[in-house]
Amino acid sequence: MDKHWYSPGLRRVFGVPGGAEALVLADAARAGQAVLFVARDDVHMDQAAEALAFMAPDLRVLSFPAWDCLPYDRVSPKTDIVARRVGTLTDLRHAAAEGGETPPVVLTTVSAVLQRVPPRAYFDD
To answer: How far apart are the first and last CA of the chain?
Structure first.
């Protein structure tokens, strides 16, 4: 497993067998490391969230889904997606300001990582 970790400050893990991701994420979070899990899609992100809720109910898990529509589309995104994205960004901003013992585990998707977000100052208030 050590061959999958890079640089002392940033650790990347890949090749974890399906279903074992939650154990790796929980171990890293309990060690005080900030954890960002990038799933291939919403289904895998939700599966990771369910597994973490079962295996590590003590951890704070934030989900950051991708938009469910395209930019400049005539259809607005669903309100629950907007609420989850804004809620996660707000929680992250406050967690960074507070500097608690265990940072939250952030679950997201490849699509969500590629989409723009408002500046940090937007979430200060």
So the answer is: 42
Query: In the predicted model, is pLDDT for residue 103 greater than 70?
Result: yes
With contact defined as beta carbons under 8 Å apart, do 56 and 46 qualify?
Answer: no
34's tokens = 């900030």
Residue 103: what residue type?
P
pTM for the model stands at 0.82
Nearest CA-CA partner of 105 in 35, 12, 23, 21: 35
How many CA within 13 A on the CB side of residue 21? 24
Strand order in the sheet with 105-109: 35-39, 105-109, 61-64
Residue spans of alpha helices (H) in 18-98: 21-30, 42-55, 79-98
Tally Cβ neighbours within 10 Å of residue 27.
12
Dihedral sign from CA coordinates of 44, 95, 57, 19: positive
- What's the mean pLDDT in 2-20? 63
d(CA 121, CA 118) in angstroms, rounded, equals: 8
* H helix or E strand, kind and range, residue 107: strand 105-109
